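Q: What would this complex look like in 3D?
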Amino acid sequence: MFKLIMTLFLVTFFLAAHGQTKAPGDVPVAHLQKRVESASDTIFVVNFWATWCQPCVKEIPEFNKIPLTYKNHPVKVIMANLDFPNQKESRVVPFLKNNIVTHEVVMTITPRGGEWIDEIDSSWSGAIPATVIWHKGKKYFHEGETNYEQMKEWIDRLL
Amino acid sequence: MKRLLLLAGMLLFVVSFTATAQLSVGDEAPDFKLKNIDGQWVSLSDYDDEKGVIVVFTCNHCPYAKLYESRIVDLQKDFGPKGFPVVAINPNDSTIVAEDSYSKMISNAAEKGFNFPYLLDDVQLFKQYGATRTPHVYLLKNQGDNFTVAYIGAIDDNSQDANDVEERYLANAIQSLLKGKAPEIAETKAVGCTIKFHK
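A: Here is my prediction, written as C-alpha cells for the whole assembly.
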C-alpha cells in the first residue's frame, strides 16, 4: 500500500514539475477567431504570446490561475503562441517542457502582412502580450501585461 | 457637488484622451531633441533640408527589432541620399530592460554597423507619436515649415525573412512621396514588442 501511494505521489510530482510534452497544434488565426466568437456559454480567454517576449513569459502564471469555471460559466483559456511556425520544435516545444503552462497552447498561423491584427481588434497595434476575452459575442481587448485580478474584472464586465 | 462631479468627469476625459493620443497620417509630427549615441543632440528640425525623415522606434533587445536591423541599414543606404534619412529612437527604459541602456545602444550600433543616428528617448517622446511597439515606423514628409506623417506601421510584410518579402510598405510609401504622390498604403500593423516604460 505504501509503495502504491509513494508511486502515485511520485507520478503526480513528476507531472506537476514538468510541463507539456505534446507539441502544440497549428491553428490559423481565422479559425481561432471563429472558435472563440461562438455564442456558447463559454468564456474564452485568448493570450497572444511568444517564447521570446519577456513580459509574456512573466505573466504566464497569471493565466495558469484562471479556473475551468467562473461564476457557473465554463472557461476556456487558449495560449495563442506567436513564435514563427518553423521554430515550433526548436523553441516552443522545449519551452513547454521546461515551463508550466496549464492551459491549451496553439501555434497561431498568421497570414502575410498585419491585417489579421485588425481582425482580432482594431485597437491592437500588434505588440505582445495581448489578451482578448470573448463571451457571447461581447469582447474585451487589452494590449500589454495583465494579471489574474484584472482579468476577473474584465470577465465580470462581460457577464 | 454636481459641478465637482462634472469637473472630475471632464478631467477624466482629458486624461484618458491624452493617454491614447496618437498621431494619424496627415498630422504634424512633434519636434524632439534627443541624445544620439555619439553624445550629440539630434532634433527633427535638423532635417529641414531633407524631403522627409524615416523615424523608427526600435531597440536592442526585441527579437523583432533585431530582425529588422540590417534592413534599416539598407533603408538608410537606399533612401538617405534621396532625401529620406533614417532616425532610430530607442523608447525603452533601461531600468526595465538592461539590454536597452545607452551604453548598449552604442555597442549594438557599432556591432550592426548602424549608418544613422540612434537616439535615446528618455522623455517618452514615443507617447506623443503614439508608438506602442518596436519596431514602429513613422515616415515624415517635409512640408516646408513643418513635418507631417505620411505613413505609419511596419517596414514590410515579412518580419522573419527579408528574402521573402512581397510588399515593402515603407519603401513603397517613400517611392510615392518621391513621385509627389500620397502613399497607397498609409498604415499597416505588425507583431512587435511592447514599449517598456514606467507608467
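A: To summarize the key features: Residues 2-20 of chain B form the longest helix (19 residues). The helical segments of chain B are 2-20, 63-79, 102-112, 125-129, 169-178.
Q: Very helpful, thank you.
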